[in-house]
Protein backbone atom coordinates (compact mmCIF):
# COMPACT_ATOMS: atom_id res chain seq x y z
CA UNK A 1 0.00 0.00 0.00
CA UNK A 2 1.31 3.43 -0.92
CA UNK A 3 0.80 6.41 1.30
CA UNK A 4 0.25 9.87 -0.18
CA UNK A 5 2.49 12.51 1.32
CA UNK A 6 3.87 15.90 0.46
CA UNK A 7 2.21 19.26 -0.19
CA UNK A 8 -0.80 17.79 -1.98
CA UNK A 9 -1.61 15.47 0.91
CA UNK A 10 -1.18 18.34 3.37
CA UNK A 11 -3.64 20.46 1.43
CA UNK A 12 -6.16 17.62 1.40
CA UNK A 13 -5.73 17.13 5.13
CA UNK A 14 -6.20 20.86 5.75
CA UNK A 15 -9.35 20.88 3.60
CA UNK A 16 -10.71 17.88 5.48
CA UNK A 17 -10.00 19.56 8.82
CA UNK A 18 -11.76 22.71 7.64
CA UNK A 19 -14.77 20.67 6.61
CA UNK A 20 -14.89 19.02 10.03
CA UNK A 21 -14.73 22.43 11.71
CA UNK A 22 -17.48 23.76 9.43
CA UNK A 23 -19.73 20.81 10.15
CA UNK A 24 -19.12 21.03 13.91
CA UNK A 25 -19.86 24.76 13.98
CA UNK A 26 -22.93 24.32 11.83
CA UNK A 27 -24.30 21.60 14.10
CA UNK A 28 -23.53 23.65 17.22
CA UNK A 29 -25.26 26.76 15.87
CA UNK A 30 -28.22 25.06 14.24
CA UNK A 31 -31.53 26.01 15.82
CA UNK A 32 -29.94 28.79 17.87
CA UNK A 33 -31.97 31.69 16.51
CA UNK A 34 -33.74 33.61 19.26
CA UNK A 35 -35.36 36.97 19.91
CA UNK A 36 -33.93 39.72 22.11
CA UNK A 37 -36.14 42.06 24.17
CA UNK A 38 -37.68 44.46 21.69
CA UNK A 39 -38.13 41.80 19.03
CA UNK A 40 -34.64 41.94 17.50
CA UNK A 41 -33.64 38.63 15.93
CA UNK A 42 -30.36 37.25 17.27
CA UNK A 43 -28.13 34.25 16.66
CA UNK A 44 -27.10 32.86 20.03
CA UNK A 45 -24.68 30.05 20.76
CA UNK A 46 -25.90 27.11 22.89
CA UNK A 47 -25.62 27.72 26.62
CA UNK A 48 -22.83 25.19 27.23
CA UNK A 49 -20.64 26.58 24.44
CA UNK A 50 -21.37 30.20 25.32
CA UNK A 51 -20.50 29.55 28.95
CA UNK A 52 -17.01 28.42 27.93
CA UNK A 53 -16.49 31.27 25.46
CA UNK A 54 -17.77 34.02 27.75
CA UNK A 55 -15.91 32.70 30.81
CA UNK A 56 -12.65 32.82 28.87
CA UNK A 57 -13.49 36.37 27.78
CA UNK A 58 -14.27 37.35 31.38
CA UNK A 59 -11.01 35.90 32.70
CA UNK A 60 -8.99 37.59 29.95
CA UNK A 61 -10.71 40.90 30.66
CA UNK A 62 -9.86 40.64 34.37
CA UNK A 63 -6.29 39.50 33.68
CA UNK A 64 -5.70 42.45 31.34
CA UNK A 65 -6.25 44.88 34.23
CA UNK A 66 -3.10 44.78 36.31
CA UNK A 67 -3.81 47.77 38.56
CA UNK A 68 -4.95 46.71 42.00
CA UNK A 69 -6.05 48.98 44.83
CA UNK A 70 -3.54 49.40 47.65
CA UNK A 71 -4.04 47.13 50.68
CA UNK A 72 -6.73 48.47 52.97
CA UNK A 73 -5.82 49.89 56.35
CA UNK A 74 -7.91 50.44 59.46
CA UNK A 75 -11.46 51.58 58.82
CA UNK A 76 -10.97 51.19 55.05
CA UNK A 77 -10.92 47.42 55.51
CA UNK A 78 -14.28 47.58 57.24
CA UNK A 79 -15.62 49.77 54.42
CA UNK A 80 -14.40 47.25 51.83
CA UNK A 81 -16.12 44.41 53.66
CA UNK A 82 -19.26 46.50 53.92
CA UNK A 83 -19.18 47.09 50.16
CA UNK A 84 -18.90 43.36 49.53
CA UNK A 85 -21.88 42.70 51.80
CA UNK A 86 -23.83 45.42 50.00
CA UNK A 87 -23.11 43.85 46.62
CA UNK A 88 -24.21 40.43 47.92
CA UNK A 89 -27.42 41.84 49.42
CA UNK A 90 -28.37 43.81 46.32
CA UNK A 91 -27.49 40.86 44.14
CA UNK A 92 -29.86 38.62 46.08
CA UNK A 93 -32.71 41.11 45.69
CA UNK A 94 -32.07 41.66 41.98
CA UNK A 95 -31.88 37.92 41.33
CA UNK A 96 -35.17 37.34 43.12
CA UNK A 97 -36.80 40.14 41.11
CA UNK A 98 -35.58 38.71 37.80
CA UNK A 99 -36.73 35.17 38.58
CA UNK A 100 -40.07 36.40 39.90
CA UNK A 101 -40.61 38.45 36.75
CA UNK A 102 -39.83 35.48 34.50
CA UNK A 103 -39.86 32.06 36.19
CA UNK A 104 -38.59 30.48 32.94
CA UNK A 105 -35.31 32.37 33.37
CA UNK A 106 -34.35 30.02 36.20
CA UNK A 107 -34.03 27.17 33.69
CA UNK A 108 -31.29 29.05 31.83
CA UNK A 109 -29.77 30.99 34.75
CA UNK A 110 -30.48 29.06 37.99
CA UNK A 111 -28.71 31.76 39.98
CA UNK A 112 -26.80 34.97 39.50
CA UNK A 113 -23.45 35.10 41.29
CA UNK A 114 -21.92 38.41 42.36
CA UNK A 115 -18.33 39.18 43.29
CA UNK A 116 -16.09 42.21 43.86
CA UNK A 117 -12.83 42.14 41.87
CA UNK A 118 -9.72 43.77 43.31
CA UNK A 119 -9.30 46.21 40.42
CA UNK A 120 -8.42 49.86 41.03
CA UNK A 121 -10.23 51.19 37.97
CA UNK A 122 -14.00 51.49 37.70
CA UNK A 123 -15.79 48.84 35.70
CA UNK A 124 -17.87 45.69 35.69
CA UNK A 125 -18.07 42.46 33.69
CA UNK A 126 -20.12 39.27 33.38
CA UNK A 127 -20.45 35.99 31.54
CA UNK A 128 -23.35 34.10 30.01
CA UNK A 129 -23.90 31.80 32.99
CA UNK A 130 -24.75 34.66 35.36
CA UNK A 131 -21.45 35.61 37.03
CA UNK A 132 -21.42 39.37 37.68
CA UNK A 133 -18.16 41.07 38.67
CA UNK A 134 -18.01 44.61 40.04
CA UNK A 135 -14.60 46.27 40.17
CA UNK A 136 -13.74 47.78 43.52
CA UNK A 137 -12.78 50.98 41.70
CA UNK A 138 -16.43 51.88 41.12
CA UNK A 139 -16.40 53.26 44.68
CA UNK A 140 -13.80 55.89 43.82
CA UNK A 141 -16.73 58.14 42.89
CA UNK A 142 -19.41 58.67 45.53
CA UNK A 143 -22.51 56.63 44.75
CA UNK A 144 -25.98 56.08 46.13
CA UNK A 145 -27.21 52.53 46.60
CA UNK A 146 -29.49 52.76 43.57
CA UNK A 147 -26.47 53.55 41.38
CA UNK A 148 -24.69 50.40 42.53
CA UNK A 149 -27.90 48.44 41.99
CA UNK A 150 -28.18 49.88 38.48
CA UNK A 151 -24.59 48.92 37.58
CA UNK A 152 -25.22 45.37 38.77
CA UNK A 153 -28.59 45.16 37.01
CA UNK A 154 -27.03 46.46 33.79
CA UNK A 155 -24.68 43.46 33.69
CA UNK A 156 -27.65 41.21 34.49
CA UNK A 157 -29.43 42.79 31.54
CA UNK A 158 -26.65 41.70 29.18
CA UNK A 159 -26.94 38.15 30.54
CA UNK A 160 -30.74 38.05 30.37
CA UNK A 161 -30.77 39.47 26.82
CA UNK A 162 -28.26 36.77 25.77
CA UNK A 163 -25.68 39.26 24.53
CA UNK A 164 -22.86 36.95 25.63
CA UNK A 165 -24.45 34.11 23.64
CA UNK A 166 -24.51 36.39 20.58
CA UNK A 167 -20.85 37.25 20.96
CA UNK A 168 -19.97 33.57 21.39
CA UNK A 169 -21.86 32.70 18.21
CA UNK A 170 -20.05 35.52 16.41
CA UNK A 171 -16.70 34.19 17.63
CA UNK A 172 -17.55 30.71 16.36
CA UNK A 173 -18.57 32.07 12.97
CA UNK A 174 -15.44 34.18 12.59
CA UNK A 175 -13.23 31.22 13.57
CA UNK A 176 -15.08 29.08 11.06
CA UNK A 177 -14.41 31.62 8.31
CA UNK A 178 -10.72 31.64 9.16
CA UNK A 179 -10.51 27.85 8.92
CA UNK A 180 -12.38 27.74 5.65
CA UNK A 181 -10.44 30.54 3.99
CA UNK A 182 -6.92 30.13 5.34
CA UNK A 183 -6.41 26.44 6.06
CA UNK A 184 -6.62 25.33 2.38
CA UNK A 185 -4.03 27.93 1.48
CA UNK A 186 -1.58 26.22 3.87
CA UNK A 187 -0.45 29.59 5.19
CA UNK A 188 2.25 29.94 7.76
CA UNK A 189 1.09 29.33 11.30
CA UNK A 190 1.97 32.83 12.42
CA UNK A 191 -0.05 34.45 9.64
CA UNK A 192 -2.99 32.15 10.34
CA UNK A 193 -2.89 32.99 14.05
CA UNK A 194 -2.83 36.75 13.41
CA UNK A 195 -5.62 36.53 10.87
CA UNK A 196 -7.68 34.34 13.20
CA UNK A 197 -7.27 36.79 16.09
CA UNK A 198 -8.24 39.74 13.91
CA UNK A 199 -11.26 37.95 12.47
CA UNK A 200 -12.40 36.89 15.92
CA UNK A 201 -12.15 40.44 17.27
CA UNK A 202 -14.05 41.89 14.32
CA UNK A 203 -16.58 39.09 14.22
CA UNK A 204 -17.73 39.58 17.77
CA UNK A 205 -19.10 43.00 16.85
CA UNK A 206 -19.82 42.63 13.15
CA UNK A 207 -21.55 39.26 13.23
CA UNK A 208 -23.44 39.72 16.50
CA UNK A 209 -26.37 41.27 14.65
CA UNK A 210 -26.55 44.56 16.55
CA UNK A 211 -24.36 47.52 17.35
CA UNK A 212 -23.06 48.09 20.90
CA UNK A 213 -25.49 50.95 21.56
CA UNK A 214 -28.43 48.72 20.70
CA UNK A 215 -27.28 46.01 23.08
CA UNK A 216 -26.66 48.60 25.78
CA UNK A 217 -30.19 49.94 25.29
CA UNK A 218 -31.65 46.45 25.71
CA UNK A 219 -29.62 45.83 28.87
CA UNK A 220 -30.56 49.29 30.14
CA UNK A 221 -34.28 48.61 29.73
CA UNK A 222 -34.01 45.36 31.65
CA UNK A 223 -31.94 47.01 34.41
CA UNK A 224 -34.43 49.85 34.89
CA UNK A 225 -37.31 47.40 35.00
CA UNK A 226 -35.56 45.36 37.69
CA UNK A 227 -34.84 48.48 39.75
CA UNK A 228 -38.45 49.58 39.41
CA UNK A 229 -39.45 46.25 40.95
CA UNK A 230 -37.19 47.05 43.91
CA UNK A 231 -38.87 50.42 44.38
CA UNK A 232 -36.46 52.76 42.53
CA UNK A 233 -38.08 54.79 39.79
CA UNK A 234 -36.33 55.70 36.56
CA UNK A 235 -36.20 59.36 37.62
CA UNK A 236 -34.49 58.48 40.92
CA UNK A 237 -31.91 56.35 39.15
CA UNK A 238 -31.32 58.99 36.47
CA UNK A 239 -30.76 61.73 39.04
CA UNK A 240 -28.31 59.70 41.11
CA UNK A 241 -26.49 58.37 38.04
CA UNK A 242 -26.03 61.89 36.65
CA UNK A 243 -24.22 62.86 39.86
CA UNK A 244 -22.16 59.66 39.95
CA UNK A 245 -20.74 59.89 36.41
CA UNK A 246 -19.24 63.33 37.16
CA UNK A 247 -16.67 61.67 39.42
CA UNK A 248 -15.67 58.86 37.04
CA UNK A 249 -12.34 58.48 35.31
CA UNK A 250 -12.32 58.40 31.52
CA UNK A 251 -12.29 54.83 30.23
CA UNK A 252 -14.51 52.71 27.97
CA UNK A 253 -16.75 51.53 30.79
CA UNK A 254 -17.17 55.07 32.16
CA UNK A 255 -18.17 56.36 28.73
CA UNK A 256 -20.84 53.67 28.44
CA UNK A 257 -22.25 54.61 31.85
CA UNK A 258 -22.17 58.31 30.94
CA UNK A 259 -24.08 57.54 27.73
CA UNK A 260 -26.68 55.66 29.77
CA UNK A 261 -27.03 58.63 32.15
CA UNK A 262 -27.44 61.09 29.27
CA UNK A 263 -30.01 58.87 27.61
CA UNK A 264 -32.04 58.72 30.82
CA UNK A 265 -32.00 62.51 31.10
CA UNK A 266 -33.29 62.87 27.52
CA UNK A 267 -35.95 60.22 27.99
CA UNK A 268 -38.96 61.93 29.54
CA UNK A 269 -41.28 58.91 29.74
CA UNK A 270 -40.52 55.83 31.82
CA UNK A 271 -38.97 52.97 29.87
CA UNK A 272 -41.26 49.97 29.64
CA UNK A 273 -39.54 46.69 28.85
CA UNK A 274 -42.78 45.15 27.49
CA UNK A 275 -41.49 45.24 23.93
CA UNK A 276 -40.76 41.62 23.12
CA UNK A 277 -44.40 40.79 22.45
CA UNK A 278 -45.45 43.45 19.96
CA UNK A 279 -48.59 41.59 18.83
CA UNK A 280 -51.71 42.68 20.77
CA UNK A 281 -53.54 39.79 22.44
CA UNK A 282 -56.62 38.41 20.75
CA UNK A 283 -59.77 39.15 22.75
CA UNK A 284 -62.37 36.40 22.35
CA UNK A 285 -66.09 37.27 22.55
CA UNK A 286 -67.89 36.03 25.66
CA UNK A 287 -69.54 32.63 25.41
CA UNK A 288 -73.32 32.42 25.20
CA UNK A 289 -74.92 33.30 28.52
CA UNK A 290 -71.73 34.83 29.95
CA UNK A 291 -71.25 38.47 30.85
CA UNK A 292 -69.06 40.57 28.60
CA UNK A 293 -67.65 42.36 31.64
CA UNK A 294 -63.95 41.72 31.86
CA UNK A 295 -62.09 40.77 35.00
CA UNK A 296 -60.77 43.66 37.08
CA UNK A 297 -57.35 44.83 35.93
CA UNK A 298 -54.28 43.34 37.55
CA UNK A 299 -52.37 45.40 40.04
CA UNK A 300 -48.63 45.62 40.22
CA UNK A 301 -45.98 45.52 37.49
CA UNK A 302 -46.32 43.32 34.44
CA UNK A 303 -44.04 40.30 34.16
CA UNK A 304 -40.66 41.04 32.64
CA UNK A 305 -40.62 39.62 29.10
CA UNK A 306 -37.01 38.50 29.15
CA UNK A 307 -37.28 35.07 27.61
Instruction: Tell me the distance between the termini.
Output: 58 Å
Helical content (DSSP H or I, runs of 4+): 55-70%
Percent of residues in beta strands? 5-15%
Write out the strand line-up for the largest beta sheet, numbering strands in chain order.
3-5-4
Number of strands: 5
What are the segments in which pLDDT stays under 50 over at least 5 consecutive residues? 18-31, 190-196, 198-209, 268-284, 290-307
Largest sheet: 3 strands, mixed
- What is the general shape? globular
Average pLDDT: 75
Radius of gyration: 24 Å
String of helices and strands: HEEHHHEEEHHHHHH
Description:
This protein starts with 6 loop residues before the first helix and ends in a 41-residue tail after the last helix. The strands form two sheets. Strands 3-5-4 form a three-stranded mixed sheet, with helices on both faces. Helices cover 55% and strands 6% of the residues. The chain is mainly alpha-helical. Residues 18-31, 190-196, 198-209, 268-284 and 290-307 have low confidence and may be disordered. The relative contact order is 0.14. It has a domain at 33-165 and 210-266. The chain is built from ten helices and five strands; from the N terminus they run H-E-E-H-H-H-E-E-E-H-H-H-H-H-H. Helix 1 packs antiparallel against helix 6, helix 2 (47-63) crosses helix 6 and helix 6 runs antiparallel to helix 7.
Amino acid sequence: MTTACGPRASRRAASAASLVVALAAGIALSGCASTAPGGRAQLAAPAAISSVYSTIDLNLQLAAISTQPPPCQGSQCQADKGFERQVARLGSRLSAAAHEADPELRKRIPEFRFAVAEKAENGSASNSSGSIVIYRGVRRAAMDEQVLAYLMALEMGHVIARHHDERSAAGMISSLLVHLLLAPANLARGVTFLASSAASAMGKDLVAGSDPSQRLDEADRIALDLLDRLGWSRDEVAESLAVYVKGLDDNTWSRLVRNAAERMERQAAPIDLALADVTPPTVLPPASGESATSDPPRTGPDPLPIR
